[in-house]
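Review the following:
>
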Amino acid sequence: MSAGQPRQAGGAHVLARAALGLYPPVWRARYGNEVLALLEDSGAGVAAAASLAWHAVPAWACPPRHLYDRRERMRASVATVGMAWALLAGLAAVFTQLAQAQRQVQGPTLAQHPVIAWSYWAFDACLVVSVLAVAVGGVPLWLVMLRRARRARRRGEVALLLAAAVVPAAYLAAGAVVVALVRGPSRPVVPWESRSMVDLANGGVGPRWFLALVLLGFAAALVSAAGPGLALRRLRLHGPVLVLAARAAFLAAVTMGLAGAASVVAAVGLYQWAPAYAGYRGAWPLAVYLSAVLLAAAVAVISAARGIRASRPPAVA
């Protein structure tokens, strides 16, 4: 019995450390040693480690405000939301391409199942609001950072900020060249013909080139979002323009998440009610798309919530 106790205690200690690793770094730095000491002194086991892991969720969603510098928290949230929003925007672009390619053959399905049409409308509305929120909050922040970086002659930060415009433009130019070079003879879509999603969406370039362009587009979106986010952290900008960006990021994250949810509802409806007619065959594309939307939306909304919480002035005691 005594030989098993150290082994059990050691296993509980490993589980506790693993659960503690789920918490934000600032939280671990402040409370990590105290929590581990408390668990060791109380002889807590697997149940305590599981409870500790579960409480990591509110530690991320609603972190104690006294642990964070408000300005740094807003900067981190804006940068993180920018990356997650770029991924969601890329997914939305893919869905839009697929939807535009298939709406011409979905008339009877939309009439019989209006939930698909409603999902399209909700997707369009949320996407417009999200893009407007990014423009209202992001463009002023970008301009202020660019002016500050140019005045300070910080070429690295200027290059990072210009990546937000240069990289998407380069991608669009490269995509246009690829489409012009590899596009084959197109043929009209016959309503009763069963064709795959990629066949309907690729515009004659073929499924492999279409998927290559999609992956390259995701990479371009992430690079263009990472540049300004990194510049924001380096320039350590603060003030009303940062507060506006943090609040706009929350609106952009929520509405883009809703747009992603609406696209998932539409895709599930087409898989359910028109698998052959709309060209939806096989469940793995839907599973991959659903997982990517949920992950990016969760990261964006949680980080945006932390940023907007930090944007509020501290209560006066």
User: Anything to note?
Assistant: The chain has two domains: 11-61, 69-311. Residues 254 and 301 are 6 Å apart (CA to CA). Residues 11-61 form one domain.
